[in-house]
Design a protein that fits this description.
Blueprint lengths: L17 H22 L2 H8 L3 H7 L3 H13 L10 H17 L1 H14 L3 H29 L8 H29 L6 H13 L6
Helix pairs in contact: 1-2, 1-4, 1-6, 2-3, 4-6, 4-7, 5-7, 5-8, 5-9, 6-7, 7-8
Length: 211
Amino acid sequence: MHRSPCPRKGRTGRPRSAEADRAILDATRAALVDVGWGKLTMSEVATRAGVAKTTLYRRWANKNELVVDAVAVLFDELELPDRGCLQADIEGVVLQFGALLARPETKTALMAVVAESTTDDALRERIRSAIVDRQKRLVLLGRERAQQRGELPPDGAGPEGALAATRTVGLIFDVIAGAIVHRTLVSAEPVDAAWAHQFSTMLLTGLGGLG
């Protein structure tokens, strides 16, 4: 299920149409695959989506914001079904993530915005808030389930414990996302069941757990 794109602050006017939003975001990803970042324009997206260009500008200030939101709704498809143990949960979301990144529309859009963000601090911050921070929900849920099963120790008490937990969640997300992005987008290798199992084993037991 898609979430609505990040709302623009300070904008007023007619209520947003979820159907129009979906059409615009779908058109954005399709256009990126067909023409690439350099030739992508708001006019191109409006034409493909069948909406007026002013409709786009009421929602997004520029194509940077638009493309980030077009990517973000794809990542919102990721789920963490309860598969009974932490390792199985990790493998399940790793396989979902790998399959998502293997899709041409995801690969093209993500690589484009990441490349642009190296010289655009505002774009980098939007990527962090719209994609990275939102997807940390999967790590939070996985840790909570594992703690309830007794597979992981509970968080420490007080502000120090909360801070340590936040840092741990961030590190886990960085390790998992970084490994999958590198394997799919840089190494161009598949994220299959065998790799997901080996990766989750290393994540849970360290290098000593690999045979």
